[in-house]
Amino acid sequence: AAFPRVRWTAVKITNHLHAPQHCEMVETGDGWTIWKQNSTKDHSDTARFLTSGANRGLLVQSRESSLSEACASLQSELASASTVIVESASAADVLDPTLLLVLLDPAQSDFKQSARQQFERADAFIVRSANFEVIEQIDCTKKPVFAASPHHLDPALLFMLEAKVGSNA
C-alpha cells in the first residue's frame, strides 16, 4: 500500500443489483442497498479494496433513479471516516469529491457516458499502462496524466495524492 498509515474506507458504486458474497447489509432503501465487505476471499472489487489495504470496503448498489438517496445514506455511513476513495463516475456529481481522478483504459475504445461527463471536472487522468494514445480521444491538455499499473504508480501521482490526503498519510 502506498499510504499504509491511512485508514481508507473504499467504496464501489454500481447499478448492477445482485447478492454479493461475503458481505453484510448495512442499509437499504427503495432501489438501493449498501453492503459491507467482510472477507477478502472472493475476487470482487470490494474484496480487492481490503486486500490492497483499505480498512473498510463498501458496495453501494443503486438504480440510477435512486442514486441521490443512496449517496445521502452513504455520506451518513462515511461521517466518521477520515479518508474515503470512491469508484464511481456516476456518483461524482452527487458526492462532490475533493479529488476527482478518471481512470482511462487503452483497451477500451469508448468510454461510459458517466465517465465522459466527468472529463472536464477531473483533476487528473490515470492511464492503465504507458500507452497514452487513449488520451488523444479527450481534451486533457490542461490536466495531469499519470501512468499506473497493478504494481506501480507514477511518483507524481503519489505526490498529488499525498498532498490531498494531507496529515493522514
In short:
22% of the residues lie in helices and 28% in strands.
Structural overview:
The mean pLDDT is 84. The protein has helices spanning 45-51, 67-77, 92-95, 113-116, 155-165, and strands at residues 8-14, 23-29, 32-37, 56-62, 83-87, 101-104, 124-128, 145-149, 152-153. Strand 8 and strand 9 form a beta hairpin. The strands form 2 sheets. The chain has a 5-stranded mixed beta sheet with strand order 2-3-4-1-5, sandwiched between helices. Strands 6-7-8-9 form a 4-stranded mixed beta sheet. It is globular, with a radius of gyration of 16 Å. The chain has 2 domains: 7-84, no CATH class; 98-169, no CATH class. It contains 5 helices and 9 strands; from the N terminus they run βββαβαβαβαβββα. It is of the alpha/beta class and 169 residues long.
